[in-house]
Amino acid sequence: MSATFSWLIASVLFLALAAGGGRVPAPAAHGMLVVANQREHTALLIDPETRQELLKVTVGVNGHEVAVSPDSRFAYVPIYGNSGVGKPGTDGTTIDIVDLRDRKLAGTINLGKPLRPHRAEFGPDGMLYITAELSQSVDVIDPATRKIIAEIPTGAMESHMVVLSPDGRRAYTANVAAGSVSVLDLEKRALVTVIPVAKTVQRISISADGKRVFTHDQDTPRIAVIDTLLNKVEGWIAVPSTVYSSSPTADGRKLLADSPAGKIFVIDLASRKLEESFDIPPASGELLLTPDGKFAFVSCPQAGTIEVLDVPGHKLLQPIKLTPGVDGLAWAPAIP
Which terminus of the chain, N or C, has fewer Cβ atoms within 10 Å? Predict the structure, then answer.
């Protein structure tokens, strides 16, 4: 079959689905999704174009989040434990490493003590920064030696999520039950300040220019906007229902957010007003934007799906159907 004929068939099928009013498949996203399933205790590699599961590796109990190395070779899955944040249960002590090229578990980093490690992020310096709830810190891990080389205090309980500034000089943690955001100096490896936000917060995101940090009030439907120069809440974005996670677009114009009420919100950041919303299953997972900003993926642990939003097209596409428990998401370039 010629390439031209294959393209013609694909185009006809795409148009037929669109004309029928149903969700259409996502076009090529030029990368792979890495997914942590905390209920199955697995890490998955998913082709978002074909919806195919290319890899499933068993990890510890339970991995909530996942980070991909800068060279896209390895996925790091912190093993949190068998409970939710602030709840009784086991206390994780390890990070599992999955080889995405060789499709296997490649090793485990032993943290030496119970920490409930949760969110991991690679910095521009190549170090792995990970929240360690039980020590109220962000730990710095050298991936080459697989050792903790520093422990940066957050000054607050339940430091659950972390984002890094684009220049790698600052880190910001969302401290769930403390209802605050901690600001860390990564060069000095020291706490700068703790910013009060609300009674309870969940997850955190940062603008591409590093000037704004967003976290989500879990009791009142609003999103806090933190000025990173002043290190204080400088305003709020009202939303129809509470938000669990968010991600700003690279151009700084929009903020996408997902709600446990079963919504994706698209917010105009200039006016700080809701621009549009989309119906999805109840979403208490992660929202991930592709590097080109064209697609947003939202994990829905209860439904076991990854919802897919065509951002410039303003439409939902066919979801990626997996199994209940899907949670943390990361992006990697296409891997052979």
Answer: C
Asked if 329 and 296 touch (Cβ cutoff 8 Å), the reply is: no
Which runs of E-coded beta strand occur in 61-158?
67-68, 74-79, 94-99, 104-110, 117-122, 128-132, 137-142, 147-153
C-alpha closest to that of 197 among 156, 164, 167: 156
- What tens digit of pLDDT does each residue of 265-282 get? 999 999 999 999 999 999
Q: Dump the DSSP string for 174-187.
A: EETTTTEEEEEETT
Using DSSP, state whether 250 is helix, strand or coil: coil
Domains of the chain: 27-332 (2.130.10.10)
pLDDT digits (tens, 9 = 90+) for 52-65: 999 999 999 999 99
| Sheet order of strands, 180-185 included | 159-164, 170-175, 180-185, 190-196
DSSP string, 155-218: SSS-EEEEEE-TTSSEEEEEETTTTEEEEEETTTTEEEEEEE--S-EEEEEE-TTSSEEEEEES
Q: Are 34 and 327 in contact (CB under 8 A)?
A: no
According to DSSP, the residues that pair with 34 across neighbouring strands are 45, 330
How many other CB atoms sit within 10 Å of the CB of residue 35?
29
The whole-model pTM stands at: 0.91
The tokens for 326 are: 């899907």
Contacts of 6 (CB under 8 A, 6+ apart): none
**Pair 222, 237: CB distance under 8 Å:** yes
